[in-house]
Every structure is written in C-alpha cells, then in structure tokens.
Design brief:
Layout lengths: L4 H4 L24 E7 L2 E9 L4 E5 L21 E5 L16 H14 L5 E6 L2 H11 L4 E7 L8 H5 L16 H12 L4 H10 L14 H13 L11 E6 L13 H29 L4 E5 L9 H15 L2
Length: about 325
C-alpha cells in the first residue's frame, strides 16, 4: 500500500489503525435513500439522492463509499437524478474473492445501469473510478452522456514507482489514536479539512461492531487486486466520444509537510513534490489534453480529495453546472 501513497493518501490515511468512536450521537443528514441492484451476478448497494432529469452517477475511489459525495451530490438534484454506487468488496455491496480488475468493475457498472433501466448517464468519478469511467466510455460510448473526472483522468502505471520515492510520512501518534475525536483532530490538522461527508463515509463502511473504525475496510487481497487493476489498465483516452470535464488536483506544496516537520525532511519533501510528483502529473495533463482536445480541463491548487474543501467544492459545482449546460 505504501507504493500508492501519493494517489491514495486520503483513501488509506489511517489504514490498519483503530479508533474508539462515540456511537448514537451523530446522524447522516444527507437527503438520500439506500437501494440494492442485482448486477453482473452480484448485489450492489447504492445511494439515491433523487432529483429529476437525466441520471448522474457518482463513482468513488478505493476504500471509500459514495457517502463521500454526501455534501456534493445534493447540489445537482434540481437538474439531475443523482445516484452513488458502492463498488463490490465494500460496505453493503457483495464481497466476492475476485472480480476487482477494471474490466469486471466496468461490467458491474453496466449491470447496475441495466438493473435501474438507465440507458445513458453522466458519470462523475474520483480517483480509482477514473479507470472504470474511461473503460466504460471506450466500450459503451452510446451509454455515456458526459464524463466528469475528479482528479482521476490518469494512466496510473508509473504512480507506484513514483510514490515509493516520497520521503515524507505523517503517521498518527498513539495520542492521536486515543479516540474518535482525537483522530478527527489529527486528520483535520494534517489534511486541513473535515466534513460531514468524511464522517458519514467513516461511519457507514468503516465503523466496526466493537465501536472502532478501521479506515481500510477491504481485505488485503481485494486492495491488491484493485491496485493491480489500476496500474495495469492502459487507458485509451482517444476513444472517448462524450463531452469531458476533467479536474486535476495540483497542490502547490507537499500535503504531508506539517509545521513540526524537520527541516531536512521538509527540504526533501518539497524537492520530491516539485521535481518528481508534480512534473509527472503535468505530463499526464498534457497527454490528456492532446488525446481529448475538446475536453474542459480545470487545474486546482487542492488535495487529491478535491471536492471536500468549501473553496474547491464551489469551483467544482460552478464548473459542473456550466459544463452540463444546467
């Protein structure tokens, strides 16, 4: 998991750790209902925010649920029917031992649309979901109205190698892990954000029966299959026919560098960020622009979890509404 740190820092930030959580004092206020669909021979869980108009499907990253869109998704219900899919292996969706390659996940999405009798949809995907969206658009172009990438339009082949070069770590201390509130404070301090959506995601799929939270709720085998699928998938962006809006998160400084980070680690971290990671991301952006010349590309000085901070969400909502002509 370490090799994928740079892409999944906000997905597996607390992987393998547990937290005590005060239960029955919090409620999910996002206006969605839950449902299940039989798709590709498994049962998939989804959230339904309702709304009128053509469908818009939110697809999330590895180890995260559609609850991460609890704040963002309702902002489009006046103009779209909004759904969020829980990928196999997670939450209330079925958890088979296999089937986590990009091709199978793409068929899960097709089956989900079939089950809900959706002929065409706008797909909005974060992180890992970009591979599924691209594959789906390649294979089923007639079923895609639009693609909206939330820091997810990448060829991930080089990222494990690049991630392994990162000299900065920001693991929590024992004191940070003492309770849910202390872990929340640690997350807020180190990531500069917190939201109802982050909490809803944690409580929906990571809250354990004993009252603890494990923020990598998937088995090691499932996580490896998903990572392998991302790295091995070779996206052919030139085959995309639908209109595209792509957001890229280009934080201006290394998010793992904190006020207490020592000077040498800070120096190495910024050097890595500015000379290794950001140049690779910019190369990928230029490739995407060449291969999808009609795409609308928006670069944000933001973290990978690009739609959570209010200032970033505001831009994303504005751009999505303008892009969809709504």
């Amino acid at each position: 998991m370490k090799s994928a740190h740079l892409i999944f820092a906000l997905l597996f930030l607390l992987t393998g750790t547990t937290y005590i959580v005060a239960q029955n004092v919090w409620a999910d206020k996002s206006p969605h209902k839950e449902g299940f669909a039989q798709a590709n021979n498994i049962r998939l869980h989804y959230l339904d925010w309702g709304g009128k108009g053509e469908p818009m499907i939110f697809l999330t990253g590895m180890g995260a649920s559609p609850h991460l869109f609890d704040d963002l998704a309702p902002k489009f219900t006046s103009r779209f029917r909004i759904l969020g899919l829980t990928r196999r292996g997670l939450g209330k969706s079925d958890k088979p031992a296999t089937g986590y390659d990009t091709a199978t996940l793409t068929e899960d999405l097709r089956g989900f649309l079939d089950a809900l009798k959706i002929k065409r949809a706008t797909l909005v995907g974060w992180s890992l979901a970009g591979t599924e969206m691209t594959r789906f658009a390649e294979k089923y172009p007639q079923r895609v109205s639009r693609l909206i990438y939330l820091d997810s339009a990448y060829d991930y082949a080089k990222f494990p190698e690049i991630g392994a070069q990162d000299p900065v770590g920001s693991a929590p201390t024992k004191e940070d892990l003492a309770s849910f509130e202390s872990s929340k404070k640690w997350f807020t301090r180190t990531q500069g954000m917190w939201s109802e959506a982050i909490e809803a995601d944690a409580r929906a799929i990571k809250l354990q029966p004993d009252g603890t939270i494990k923020l990598d709720p998937m088995s090691e085998g499932v996580s490896k299959q998903l990572l392998d699928g991302m790295v091995n998938h070779k996206p052919d962006f030139t085959r995309i026919k639908a209109p595209v809006l792509a957001f890229y998160a280009l934080a201006s400084s290394h998010p793992g560098i904190l006020p207490e980070t020592d000077a040498e680690t800070r120096r190495k971290g910024e050097k890595y960020w500015n000379e290794v990671l950001l140049p690779e991301k910019r190369r990928q952006i230029e490739r995407f622009k060449r291969e999808v010349p009609m795409a609308r590309v928006v670069e944000l000085d933001a973290p990978h979890l690009v739609f959570i901070r209010p200032q970033d969400e505001k831009i994303i909502v504005r751009e999505m509404l303008a892009f969809t002509g709504k």
